[in-house]
């Protein structure tokens, strides 16, 4: 039995509220169980120096957790003068995951920055950030299309992510914190709406896993991502 009482293949409740902030070109509040992330997308008419003059666009991301997103207060990273390694790794993951679903030629020479701020954490914050980040990106690119700033849709496909792991000897979908902290194997799966893999992060933490178990986790992830993509489509329709 999972601590939450869910079936092994059951997601936590998912909700996506769009237009959550006033000023950003795209924004949403995504809730996956007790993990809540605010995602905003900002359009700028500039690109990083390494692609300037190429005609290609760029999508990047920043990630952070509020001090009381967890049980105890975390010091703001700005107060220490630098980002932690975990933060840098997660925001790079979000950025490259979202770029995998973008036609950078169609976007044109402009940059969209997706900011993901974790308001409350209960496991799966990077997956919620990618899933909500795509919604914010979709809303921002819709504005470019409606204003005829661009003529072709730069979003090739949905991008969403979900965690899976082996908890109490069973493959389970969408780990919450109690499961994540005790899972023998834990993985994050980033996929397109069409089911293609973008990134898979899997590691054994106190237990090894077999090829068959890995395949079971991928099957669970595909089902979870399909559910998330349906929620994304509903949110932006």
What does this molecule look like?
This protein has 237 residues and is α+β, with helices and mostly antiparallel strands. The protein has one domain (14-236): Ribosomal Protein S5, domain 2 (2-Layer Sandwich). 32% of the residues lie in helices and 29% in strands. It has six helices and nine strands. The protein has helices at 77-80, 85-99, 104-107, 125-146, 177-180, 211-236; strands at residues 14-18, 26-32, 35-44, 58-65, 111-120, 159-167, 170-173, 185-192, 197-204. The strands form two sheets. It has a five-stranded mixed sheet with strand order 1-2-3-5-4. Strands 7-6-8-9 form a four-stranded antiparallel sheet, sandwiched between helices. The protein is globular. This is Ribonuclease PH. Homohexameric ring arranged as a trimer of dimers. Residues 10-140, 159-223 form the Exoribonuclease phosphorolytic domain.
Strand order, sheet with most strands: 1-2-3-5-4
Number of domains: 1
Determine the CATH topology: Ribosomal Protein S5, domain 2
Classified by CATH, the class is Alpha Beta
CATH-defined superfamily:
GHMP Kinase, N-terminal domain
What about the largest sheet?
A: 5 strands, mixed
Keywords: Nucleotidyltransferase, RNA-binding, rRNA processing, Transferase, tRNA processing, tRNA-binding
Pfam families: RNase_PH (PF01138), RNase_PH_C (PF03725)
EC number: 2.7.7.56
Protein name: Ribonuclease PH
What is the gist of this entry?
GO terms for molecular function: 3'-5'-RNA exonuclease activity; tRNA binding; tRNA nucleotidyltransferase activity. With 237 residues, the protein is of the alpha+beta class.
């Amino acid at each position: 039995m999972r601590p939450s009482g869910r079936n092994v293949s059951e997601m936590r409740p998912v909700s996506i509220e769009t237009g959550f902030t006033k000023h950003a070109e795209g924004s949403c509040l995504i809730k996956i169980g007790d993990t809540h992330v605010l995602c905003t997308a900002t359009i700028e008419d500039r690109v990083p120096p390494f692609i300037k003059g190429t005609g290609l666009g760029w999508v990047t991301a920043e990630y952070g957790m509020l001090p009381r997103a967890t049980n105890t207060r975390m010091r703001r990273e700005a107060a220490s003068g630098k980002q932690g390694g975990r933060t840098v790794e997660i925001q790079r993951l979000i950025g490259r995951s979202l770029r995998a679903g973008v036609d950078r030629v169609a976007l044109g020479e402009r940059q969209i920055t997706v900011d993901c701020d974790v308001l409350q954490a209960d496991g799966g914050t990077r997956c919620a950030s990618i899933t909500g980040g795509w919604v914010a990106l979709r809303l921002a690119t819709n504005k470019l299309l409606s204003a005829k700033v661009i003529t072709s849709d730069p979003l090739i496909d949905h991008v969403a992510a979900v965690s899976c792991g082996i908890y109490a000897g069973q493959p389970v979908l969408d780990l919450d914190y109690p499961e994540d902290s005790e899972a023998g194997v834990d993985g994050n799966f980033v996929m397109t709406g069409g089911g293609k893999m973008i990134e898979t992060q899997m590691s054994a933490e106190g237990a090894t896993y077999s090829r068959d178990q890995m395949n079971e986790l991928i099957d669970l992830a595909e089902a979870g991502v399909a559910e998330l993509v349906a929620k994304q489509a509903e949110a932006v329709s």
